[in-house]
Each structure stands twice: as C-alpha cells, then as structure tokens.
Amino acid sequence: MIIRVFILFFYALLFLQGLALAQSPAPGNMPAGDQTNEEVSFHYMRSFPDPAADFSIDNLGNIYILSPGGQLKKLLPNGDSAAIFNNVRKFGKVFSLDVSNPQKIILYYKNFGTIVVLDRLLNSRAILDLRMHNLLQVKAVGRAYDNNIWIFDDLEGKLKKISDEGRVIDQSADFRMLFDTMPSPSHIIDQDKRVYLYDPARGVYIFDYFGGFQSRIPFVGWTDFNVIDKTLFGRDDQYLYRYEPSSLRLQHYAIPGFMKQAQKIVIAPGFVYLLQDGLIKTYAYR
Q1: Positive or negative CA dihedral for 78, 95, 105, 237?
Q2: How many domains does the chain have?
Q3: Along the 286 residues of the chain, how does pLDDT read in single tens digits?
Q4: Which of 12, 45, 91, 281 could cross-link 109 (Cys pair, CB 3.0–4.6 Å)?
C-alpha cells in the first residue's frame, strides 16, 4: 500500500512539472511557432554629431533627426545634410514621424490634433487640423499605400483612411464590435498589402487595405515596433525580435550590454541605429 501511494505521488509530481513547463511564457510573449535564440555580432560604424531627441530611417537609408529644440533635419546615408524643417515647434511637440515614403513625410502633433505633410526637401505640402474635421481623439497616424493617411479614431473606435484635406475615404467597422477589448494602437504601418496596428498591451492587429480585420499576433510589451518586407521587428528590455508571419518563425537576439541604455533602436537590413546619450549611432550586424 505504501509503495502504491509513493508511485502515485511520483507520477503526480511529474504531471505538475510538465504542466508548469507547458504554461511557462516564452521570451517576449511569443506565440506558438518556430522560436529560436540566435547569435548575432555587431560592428560599430559611426556616430552622427547632430543632437537628437528622436529619429527615423527611410527605406533609402536617409536619417531624419528631431533635435531637442524641435528642428527636423534630413541626413543622407553618408551623413551629409540634405534638408532642414524649422517650423516643428509651431504646433508643439512632435508625437510621431512617418518617413516610410521619402517623398511624403508625415508629422503628427497629437496635442494640437494636427498633421503636417512635407516633401522630400522638407518643404510643407499640407497642414491638416483634424479637429476641424471632427476627428477629436486620433490615437495614431501612418501613411497609406496610396499616399493617403491612416488614422485610428479612438473616439469612434475605427481605423480610417483620410485624404490630405481630411476627407474620410474608407473606414473599418467599430472596434468595440469586433473585439472584446478595444485596441489602443501606438503605431500604424502600411506594408505589402497589409495594415499593422501595434498595441503594446494587446499585440499586433493586422487588417487589409479596406480596413477588414484579418488576424492578431499576441506580441506584447514591445517598443520600436516596425515592419519591413512582411517581417515584424521589435524589442523589449532583453531581446531584439524578428518574426516572419508566413513561416511563423520567431527569432530573438539578446540585446548586448552597450545597447540596453538606448532610448530608441531602429532595425534596418544590415544595420541597427541607436539613440543613445543624445546621439545617433550606427552598427552593422550579421
């Protein structure tokens, strides 16, 4: 009898241990799929001397630096100055900067509900006061594939496509009818016939070009979210992440010590850009 009780107790311990392992979260709240911890090496390339409070990189490798004083400066990949926009402070602090199309730069001033559109030389092309079009609580802004503008209207709970003049061209269904908990996106990225909304608390929401919901990927707690060639990038305090939805392959790279104090990290093909100690630093990786 004692032996039988011991055997039952032993199997119970094995079962509980297996259950605990099955329920343990993977790094970065990874969904099921091919998860790999990759090794990567970084090689310092250069720093740019312009003081930076924020920055972004376009698909040509041009660098857009927002200075602490509010000036927006465009640098060529070799560091040469290409253009300057000095009216940044007219509408307060820039909330987001979209440079996904180098011919059409989108600045969003959330506190003033204003979008400013610039050309490739950072000349002002359009100024859109969203409040004049009854768009009173716009949570996030991003460029659309057809050079219109995606916005998330938090008041109505809808993803909307608008023109530079503020006319609503298309919109999704009410998110409060689609989801149990309404997303609160910080990023809108239009890439390869998909629109990606990223909510750090709930993950990635993917829509088609007509605002139709397709899927959600529960990557939460990421910062510096981006999409390049149908691949999702982001990071947390410990890892850089790269996810391919087509293969469900998720790679995560341990962030080296010299990167952990960076205020912002932008991953591009072959290069990583850091905002650290008020300067932009570039590293090659492989």
Answers
A1: positive
A2: 1
A3: 443 433 343 334 333 334 333 333 344 455 545 566 667 889 999 999 999 999 999 999 999 999 998 899 999 999 999 999 987 668 888 999 999 999 999 999 999 999 999 999 999 999 999 999 999 999 999 999 999 999 999 999 999 999 999 999 999 999 999 999 999 999 999 998 899 999 999 999 999 988 899 999 999 999 999 999 889 999 999 999 999 988 999 999 899 999 999 999 998 888 999 999 999 999 998 8
A4: 91
The CATH number of the domain where 127 resides is what? 2.120.10.30
Rg of the chain over all Cα atoms, to the nearest angstrom: 22
Q: What is the pTM of this model?
A: 0.85
For residue 193, is it within any domain?
yes
Q: Encoding tokens for residue 286?
A: 């492989």
Is 58 a domain residue?
A: no
Domain-located, residue 28: no
Strand partners, 106: 98, 117
CB 243 within 8 A of CB 29: no
| Residue 163 domain-assigned (yes or no) | yes
Nearest to 101 by CA among 164, 156, 50, 38: 164
